[in-house]
Design brief:
It is built from six helices and six strands; from the N terminus they run βαββαβαβααβα. The chain is an alpha/beta fold. It is globular, with a radius of gyration of 15 Å. It starts with 6 loop residues before the first strand and ends in a 5-residue tail after the last helix. It binds guanosine-5'-diphosphate. The site of guanosine-5'-diphosphate (GDP) has 17 residues, from helix 1. One of its GO terms (molecular function) is GTPase activity. Keywords: Nucleotide-binding. InterPro entries: P-loop_NTPase, Small_GTP-bd, Small_GTPase.
Amino acid sequence: GSNSNNRVCHFKLVLLGDTAVGKSCLVVRFVRDEFFEYQEPTIGAAFLTQAVVLEDSTVKFEIWDTAGQERYRSLAPMYYRGASAAIVVYDVTNAESFKGAKSWVKELQRRGDPSVIIALAGNKADLAGTRRKVDLKEAEEYARENGLLHFETSAKDAQNVKTLFVEIAKRLPKAV
Ligand code: GDP
């Protein structure tokens, strides 16, 4: 579309998932295009913003980092309240983290905004060749059954990180 037609819409996006699956790294890769082997537990700021420019609109994500709050599950509802989108992250080399992701999805579907867009991200895909513990087909099937977007991502080599956010942006309802 033309520039005059380009609306800017703001959406709150949260990341959920077990500790150390790479939530902060995914955000840092997406926003700053950087990766650190020793990522600080939290990126510090309350939230970061990053825009995705689509054909007819610009989606501005307000991305909330959990700051380790996933350890305190009772605090989670406060954190995902009002979120238009959620990325539920697991680590493809950690089967337990996939169970964790499923339980986050269940909680979001029960208690999150009824129209929340949920994307499932199987992170650390760069390690999948030798250390995979979560089957791709199984994850895809689960995502399909539950109406989720699904991607295997790597914050380390940037695989599918931009795609993940762009596909979420495309699914969000744009105000006219
Ligand atoms: P969080 O607790 O979910 O926010 O996880 P972090 O973002 O702090 O990442 C935890 C650890 O996993 C760090 O040591 C990262 O360097 C590492 N990590 C994160 N993403 C990836 C990835 O895509 N590939 C690899 N190989 N390591 C990653």
